[in-house]
Design a protein that fits this description.
- This protein has 322 residues and is an alpha+beta fold.
- Helices cover 23% and strands 14% of the residues.
- The protein has 6 helices and 11 strands.
Length: 322
């Protein structure tokens, strides 16, 4: 009696392997999309928590936090040691981070406070791999942990000089606003923009405890007039030559050779745009193609939608929809 042997021929085995490979290739994008959807949801949730914290801070202090504390010197120079706590440090107690707040020495410069190295989950958008992986900034004393959210300082000024003007944002150095100064309306004024973390240790962008435009946005015109602006000189940041991003357009993280930090554009690694949080706590996704007036004279007259939602009292009001 002849016994037949069960099994696969080599051709059949190769066909099965090919089918499995095709199925994996088909499923992988769906898995990646699901993961990114979860990361986006976390990013939105973090911004909402910041909105609640900002409003709780305002309720407790009858004003919003200043952008940062400064004793003297040039406010656009991050490397100077005269600067103290910034707005995110001041929000720590309202984000269930009282212990970190208690460890901060408000009598010392930010660069001498070990808390600057703390990894705070609510300050990170998980889509940003450089922030997520905990790559610290080595500039200005080093040890600066990364974050992805910046205070809207002003769409119409380089640096932080426009904070007291009606077309400024929601705060400035040693300058805290009361809500009655937000005459455009809290639902129509951006409080917080997304930021991308710097691409290497010398890149200061997205350092959450650093006092200055590492944790803020300003001057959204010219070569940085839209979210995720890709110009080679889009961000005017201190220490740009050392970052290797001077004039580089490939990653949309170009920067200008500047002695101070005067212009930082909202950026993210989400496809097609950035999240912004309005002062009422609502979070919106803004397309890279948002209407914008790129003129450099006070952002142009009238403001584009992108500039208008970043002004607090310009009477040039734009409405955005989810």
């Amino acid at each position: 009696m002849k016994v037949s042997k069960l099994g696969f021929t080599l051709v059949e085995l190769l066909v099965v392997i090919a089918i499995i490979a095709m199925l994996v290739a088909m499923l992988l994008p769906a898995v990646q999309a699901a993961r990114e959807a979860a990361r986006r949801a976390t990013c939105q949730s973090n911004m909402r928590q910041l909105g609640i914290a900002l409003n709780n801070y305002e309720s407790a202090n009858a004003m919003l936090p200043p952008f940062f504390q400064a004793r003297d010197g040039n406010d656009t120079r991050i490397a100077e040691g005269h600067k103290g706590a910034n707005w995110l440090v001041m929000l720590l107690p309202f984000l269930e981070e009282q212990a970190l707040h208690d460890q901060w020495n408000f009598g010392a410069p930010a660069s001498e406070n070990p808390v600057r190295s703390a990894e705070v989950a609510v300050f990170k958008c998980p889509t940003d791999n450089f922030s997520r992986e905990g790559r610290h900034c080595a500039y200005a004393g080093g040890g600066w942990a990364r974050g992805n959210y910046g205070m809207n300082v002003s769409p119409c000024e380089h640096g932080v000089g426009g904070a007291k003007r009606g077309d400024g944002g929601i705060g400035g150095p040693n300058y805290a606003l009361r809500l009655r100064r937000i005459t455009d309306g809290v639902s129509k004024t951006v409080a917080v923009d997304e930021l991308r973390a710097g691409l290497n240790p010398e890149d200061l962008r997205g350092s959450w405890a650093m006092p200055g435009l590492s944790a803020g946005t300003a001057a959204m015109f010219g070569d940085a007039d839209v979210p995720n602006a890709c110009g080679g000189n889009s961000d005017d940041i201190e220490n740009c030559p050392a970052t290797g991003q001077f004039g580089v357009t490939s990653r949309c993280m170009g920067c200008f050779k500047s002695e101070g930090t005067g212009q930082v554009a909202p950026r993210s690694q989400h496809a097609g745009g950035v999240f912004v949080m309005m002062l009422d706590g609502s979070v919106h996704f803004i397309s890279n193609d948002v209407e914008s007036n790129a003129l450099q004279e006070a952002c142009g007259t009238p403001h584009g939608v992108w500039q208008a939602i970043h002004t607090r009292a310009s009477a040039d009001i734009a409405t955005i929809a989810n």
